[in-house]
Amino acid sequence: MNTVYLVANGDLRLSANQMCEPAQAAMEKALVEAIQREGFTVKRAHPFDEKKRHGFIDSQKMGIEVFRSIPKDAPVVVAESVWQYSQHVLPGLFAHEGPLLTVANWSGTWPGLVGLLNLNAGLTKAGVKYSSLWSEEFRDKFFVKKLRQWLASDKINHDASHVMKYKEVKIPGEPRRLGERLASALREQQSILGVFDEGCMGMYNAIVPDELASPLGIFKERLSQSTLYARMLTIPDEEARQVYDWLINKGVKFHYGPNEETDLTEPQVIQQCKMYIAAVRLAAEFGCATIGIQYQQGLKDLCPASDLVEGILNNSDRPPVRDQVTGEELYPNQPLPVFNEVDECAGIDALITNRVWKELKQPPETTLHDLRWGRHYQDDNLDAYIWVFLISGGAPPAHFIDGYSGTSSERQPPMYFRLGGGTCKGVSRPGWIVWSRVFIDDGELCFDTGIGEVVKLPDHETEDRWRLTTPQWPIMHAVLHGITRDQMMARHKSNHIQVAYTTDRASARTAMFAKAATMAELGLKVYFCGEF
């Protein structure tokens, strides 16, 4: 009765698991000691693998075998200090009958909290009961109190006072009517999400069943990444170089080096320019309103990363791509919204954001970010908890300080991308955003939204936050007024968060209401979070 079983779910990639093993071991040591202080014994359900040189569950096959050895009614803790592929443990967690607790470290460098949010969203989608906790040292009052609560009662109660149901909020007439009109148009006109292979990065939560999407007037065109790669092979170097020259003329800075294995090189970027052209033409061929590219799986073994492509596609001002037969420009003067990592929840959100923002004559660029990490910051002008929103692919230059002139491209880390490829990097400009998340709970599509403020931090603070996370990626410094760190972690059902700028705070409020009204009219369960 006093034994807790611990499992550690990890990455699919050997190099990532090996690099992250020391951080995971340190996290587990602190976590085990915290549980033992409460009078419980911890039994690790799987050993360190001497050949692989890590102790993670690294496949679905292994996860099923591990859970066979755990008593069905035993308490299980899933300890996360890294990105994890949820499918490794979902079969075991779906079938387990005992209490479940997911626990993450609090670190930007070792993104356990990102993996935790992904796993939690998957469990929520599947209807599996679980509790969740996070901590930096595993000794703070919040963590100890909540851990004690779980050990005593098998559940944890988190503060959700920042959340309001749609029906509890008086929606102004104009945005409400706009939402109703747009929802009707979406259903009638119908839209296609181009999905280049589902299930990327183990994100079970990011797959929207057709029967939930179709009542919205949204349908999936299931495409293959092999099709994208094959189309890339048909693009001449000269045409790709036109895209490259366009970016250079706009002021994008590519950070090149001599070594293909560790540095960004021009041939890698030319390949990415071919992917950009191929993606636009395929989207047009299949009538897609938005597309999702796998990004890390499949394509990583064939060609450079897709994130430079995704960032540029999400921008209104971007290199023109023309139909090969008619010469007509495809998707002119507008984004072709991309949902990074084939997150279909984000794809639905991006599509509807695009329609609402166009109607309101707001900047139509939108992207998802990882809810990567955060910490409090204080100086003479600012005193707030500031989140690090960070994503490799997708962030458009229109979101950055100085636009394209403030955009740089650095090589993706070799640990993840053997064939390299440049990122779309920049610092998000100060201003007001609407943030949101589509997710699945109890078999229904749900929608959380709120207003956020992007702030400008001193260069040294920005550089430190990049150093502690991933310095090659674009960064957004976000303040979510009226929401504490722990409220956000307890409520948010994804590792991803969707963002779009507005011209001012009043416009953000109007846009938030209009999008919420659209979602509600489409049948989603809508919630407002924080101050607005």
Please outline what is shown here.
With 532 residues, the protein is an alpha/beta fold. It folds into two domains: 3-153, Rossmann fold (3-Layer(aba) Sandwich), CATH 3.40.50.10940; 173-529, L-fucose/L-arabinose isomerase, C-terminal (L-fucose Isomerase, Chain A, domain 3, Alpha-Beta Barrel), CATH 3.20.14.
How confident is the prediction overall: mean pLDDT?
A: 96
Low-confidence stretches: none
Total of DSSP H or I helical runs spanning 4+ residues? 15
Q: Say what the CATH topology of the largest domain is.
A: L-fucose Isomerase, Chain A, domain 3
Give helix % range: 25-40%
Count of DSSP strands = 18
Strand content: 15-25%
| CATH class category label of the largest domain | Alpha Beta
Largest sheet, spatial ordering of strands: 11-12-16-15-14-17
Topology readout:
Blueprint: E1 3-7, H1 14-37, E2 41-44, H2 60-68, E3 76-80, H3 90-95, E4 100-105, H4 112-126, E5 131-135, H5 141-153, E6 163-165, H6 173-189, E7 191-196, H7 210-213, E8 218-223, H8 225-232, H9 237-250, E9 253-254, H10 266-285, E10 290-293, H11 307-313, H12 344-359, E11 366-378, E12 383-390, E13 408-409, E14 431-441, E15 444-454, H13 459-468, E16 475-479, H14 485-491, E17 496-502, H15 505-521, E18 525-529
Parallel strand pairs: 1-2, 1-3, 3-4, 4-5, 7-8, 7-10, 9-13, 15-18
Antiparallel strand pairs: 6-18, 11-12, 11-17, 12-16, 14-15, 14-17, 15-16
